[in-house]
Design brief:
Blueprint lengths: L1 H13 L7 H9 L3 H9 L9 H15 L1 H27 L1 H12 L6 H7 L8 H13 L5 H11 L3 H30 L7 H11 L19 H15 L10 H9 L1 H4 L35 H15 L5 H12 L16 H11 L2 H6 L6 H22 L9
The structure holds a DNA duplex (14 and 14 nucleotides).
DNA sequence: TTTCAGTCAATATA
DNA sequence: TATATTGACTGAAA
């Protein structure tokens, strides 16, 4: 499903309206913009790393999926929208003149408020490739540059300091997320039976500071380090609870979402009944097991990436871009196991599953598109497939009751 | 004050 | 046209 939203870009050419769009789904169901939905789907974070707020959209998805009718409803909505659009278009063609005049009519307001607003709008900064490269280079050397460094960079690149600061913030957090994904991918591959090993995790944590690849960086030992501790605990908890495994990408969702996440908000009282001893909502039992399918299961494969990190570190001294490229190389290095999203869809849920699949039918799309440039895509797809798979499973689960809020 | 997570929204891309 | 990317912003935590 989620994946389809990604793959559909191409698929769509053949089947224009076969899927729900990110925009519609995001705005209608999740209360998010299209960009956010895309981001969310393309780079889901491990569930345990999501904040309460971060879990919210996934909980919404889960709840939404719990009602098979919802998909239909949304499709209807989409159809209606399209109809309305066509209608509008049609009529606007026929009275284009009047339209023009009406748009001119809008212009009437020119003198008034709208215009000034337009003027107030800051143009979006678009960094040139060279600028990005330079920033990346700087990042390699210092992921957490001092204000002074930032100042210098800004001057050198002729950018605002705030732009440089923002760039570093964004870059750090986005790289971090990519790493999460890699972990998940690695996990889904190597996980087969490998149980989580704390040591592996810690090595991961070390690696994940990708800055690590950068010369120590005054050990400003930024907040980055902080996740590692709690993570482990959380991790083992999750593992214990769901015996599935750790860092499951956001969509352990339903489960934990419904558990700790936010009983209060959309709170339907019953939800509270089904809680574990920690007062959290209990996850549906079956959701836990299919170990082999839990992508996040194996953060432990990270040692490898640590090696890569080393490589980049050493290389970094010669080329600032190395870090980046090594980072990319990681992507290409892995093979994706595309999870058959429907494989385990229980018959009971077939209707919904089918609708979902036809709605978003990504598996074919995902498998058909591959090739060179798509290694990243594939990774994402595999990851998302996994999410979707669980989502679907959860959605078609009979005792969804337990998931209710 | 700084960092981060999450998000928006403009823009790029297919 | 739909999705992906990314600079900027907000609010929370430390």
């Amino acid at each position: 499903w989620l994946t389809s939203l990604k793959s559909s870009r191409r698929a769509r050419k053949g089947a224009p309206n076969s899927a729900l769009g990110q925009r519609l789904f995001g705005e209608t169901i999740l209360g998010l913009t299209q960009g956010s939905v895309s981001d969310l789907l393309a780079r889901p974070k491990p569930w345990h790393k999501l904040s309460l707020k971060g879990r919210e959209p996934f909980v919404r998805m889960q709840l939404w999926l719990n009602d098979p009718n919802n998909v239909e409803k949304l499709m209807d909505m989409k159809r209606m929208e399209k109809k309305a659009y066509m209608k509008r278009r049609h009529s606007s063609v026929s009275d284009s003149q009047s339209c023009e005049s009406s748009s001119a009519g809008i212009d009437y307001s020119q003198g008034a408020s709208p215009q000034p607003q337009h003027q107030l709008k800051k143009p979006r900064v678009v960094l040139a490739p060279e600028e990005k490269e330079a920033l990346k280079r700087a990042y390699q050397q210092k992921p957490y540059p001092s204000p002074k460094t930032i100042e210098e960079l800004a001057t050198q690149l002729n950018l605002k300091t705030s732009t440089v600061i923002n760039w570093f913030h964004n870059y750090r957090s986005r790289i971090r997320r990519e790493l999460f994904i890699e972990e998940i991918q690695a996990g889904s591959q190597s996980q087969a039976g490998s149980s989580d090993s704390p040591s592996a995790r810690s090595s991961r944590a070390a690696h994940s500071s990708e800055g690590d690849s950068c010369d120590g960086v005054d050990a400003e030992g930024p907040p980055d380090g902080k996740p590692s501790g709690p993570e482990a605990d959380e991790f083992s908890n999750a593992a214990a609870k769901s015996q599935g495994g750790p860092a499951e990408p956001a969509f352990e969702a339903g489960e934990e979402a419904l558990r700790g996440a936010r009983p209060s908000e959309r709170a339907e009282p019953e939800s509270l009944e089904d809680t574990d001893d920690e007062g959290r909502l209990r996850a549906p039992r079956q959701s836990s097991p299919p170990a082999p399918q839990r992508p996040g299961d194996a953060l432990e494969t990270l040692p490898n990436s640590a090696t890569e990190g080393d490589a980049s570190t050493s290389a970094a001294s010669t080329s600032v871009l190395t870090g980046e490229s090594s980072y990319k190389s990681k992507e290409s290095s892995e093979k994706i196991s595309s999870v058959p999203s429907t494989s385990s869809t229980p018959a009971s849920g077939s209707q919904k599953a089918n609708s979902l699949q036809s709605l978003f039918g990504f598996s074919e799309a995902a498998s058909s598109r591959n090739t060179r440039d798509s290694s990243l895509r594939k990774k994402k797809a595999a990851n998302l497939n996994n999410i979707i798979h669980r989502l679907e499973k959860a959605a078609s689960r009979e005792e969804a009751v337990e998931w209710e809020f």
